[in-house]
């Protein structure tokens, strides 16, 4: 399908409604698809924090819930069908905040309508879908972005700056670890779409997409994947029956084009909490000139951000404090406040539309992450390494 969408000139333009590329002195009208806690608590208020953006419409399957969300945030229009919203709401852009199995049809419809698209991670259910979405977005000539949240957190941005400045030199080895506390317990062993193999790829997609993107951001392109995927907690189907569970623990070995390699583990059924060093996300990068060890947990009441480094020939490791300008004047205790102040996340999406700027992470990044996830799934089934 990808080759069919790599069209140019009139053949390409005939498929898509032209986007409004320059928004000088005009607000970017955004439609939000999704009414989850993440859509309501992150995407919508962050978009509304930008002076050049107007959230003009909210779309959700449950009209009552969508209307309540719209009323709470002063959004004028409410829809239960995204295509109707695209046809009627006079939008410039859309933010797609739904489960991964719904991303492809929604994004493709938005691109046909000539809309700029911000899509939640993971970008799609399959690499074939993400390839089609990328090709269509390029064909339509719109701005496209994947919401990999770690790219905006001060902690991860500062580690990236240290790596770019040569703190570890040529990277040799990476370690990327994220255990969550999503079971086993009576409260969470019921239905959840991210564990439904009919709708999702499990932990390797839901959690892995974040950590794989960080691994690529820090260490470059991945050329080979080996994986072991396991399911430890049996969750109930949506009707209370037995569900075909996707993996809830994924261990990956990543080989990079640079010759470096990394171990990546994400898991849902972990016991985590205060006092355990492994709670949150842990990243270790070791190279020719030094090592960095970083632990990040922005979801706790008091955000955790610990970065320790050791340079070659240094007598002992040093604690590396994140400079104030990474927080943009926001309190350090809430790492997500920066998304309402700085050009990151959804605000970066709006800035790119207004200024006709390039975006990273975009659909090309999302597609590469999806390829790695799919290679991990194949490796887990076959027991063999998968080349990309």
Automatic annotation (TrEMBL):
<dbReference type="InterPro" id="IPR050463">
    <property type="entry name" value="Gfo/Idh/MocA_oxidrdct_glycsds"/>
</dbReference>
<dbReference type="Pfam" id="PF01408">
    <property type="entry name" value="GFO_IDH_MocA"/>
</dbReference>
<protein>
    <recommendedName>
        <fullName>Gfo/Idh/MocA family oxidoreductase</fullName>
    </recommendedName>
</protein>
<feature type="domain" description="GFO/IDH/MocA-like oxidoreductase">
    <location>
        <begin position="156"/>
        <end position="293"/>
    </location>
</feature>
<dbReference type="InterPro" id="IPR000683">
    <property type="entry name" value="Gfo/Idh/MocA-like_OxRdtase_N"/>
</dbReference>
<dbReference type="Pfam" id="PF22725">
    <property type="entry name" value="GFO_IDH_MocA_C3"/>
</dbReference>
<dbReference type="InterPro" id="IPR055170">
    <property type="entry name" value="GFO_IDH_MocA-like_dom"/>
</dbReference>
<dbReference type="InterPro" id="IPR036291">
    <property type="entry name" value="NAD(P)-bd_dom_sf"/>
</dbReference>
<feature type="domain" description="Gfo/Idh/MocA-like oxidoreductase N-terminal">
    <location>
        <begin position="28"/>
        <end position="148"/>
    </location>
</feature>
<keyword id="KW-0560">Oxidoreductase</keyword>
